[in-house]
Specification:
This protein has 2 helices and 6 strands; from the N terminus they run ββββαββα. It has helices at 49-58, 101-104; strands spanning 5-11, 16-19, 25-34, 40-48, 64-77, 83-96. The longest helix is centred in the middle third of the chain and has 10 residues, at 49-58. The radius of gyration is 26 Å and the shape is globular. The termini are far apart.
Length: 137
């Protein structure tokens, strides 16, 4: 039997990191996947161990990810005796597609003042070194 899913979408909220009583990291988040121009499907995602800790550290609401995992149904009974169930994606691989925050910041642009010490008549593409500079060749 095959139980494998691949989803591409954005987080609907910041991920929630918790730990089991045994100390295993568990991260939960909701993923919005656009089915077509008018419909968005929402999936509950669960990641474990190092994957969980990385998701909690680097992802936030709106982060774009592609993940691989398996469908898993969890069933339980409420205190009032009602039966409930939920299908989750148990993710074993989550790939972060957004650039890190420092790469998103605009890079400083060069200004004319930064090039003030370069002589205008200097040909930087000449085959011979500039006047006063000797070559080792």
């Amino acid at each position: 039997m095959i139980n494998h899913c691949v989803l591409l979408g954005r987080l609907g909220a910041d991920p929630e990191l918790t730990y089991t009583p045994a100390g295993t990291a568990l991260c939960k988040f909701r993923l919005a996947v656009q089915r077509d121009k008018e419909t968005t499907d929402w999936f509950s995602i669960v990641a474990w161990k190092a994957t969980a800790e990385n998701c909690a550290q680097y992802l936030h609401k709106g982060s774009l990810v592609v993940l691989q995992g398996r469908l898993q149904e969890n069933s339980w009974e409420t205190k009032s005796g009602d039966k409930r169930s939920r299908v989750e994606i148990n993710a074993w691989q989550v790939e972060f597609l957004d650039k890190p925050a420092e790469e998103k910041k605009p890079k400083p642009q060069a200004t004319d003042d930064e090039f003030a010490d370069i002589p205008e008549d200097e040909d930087i593409f000449a085959d011979e070194p500039p006047k006063g500079v000797t070559s080792d060749e």
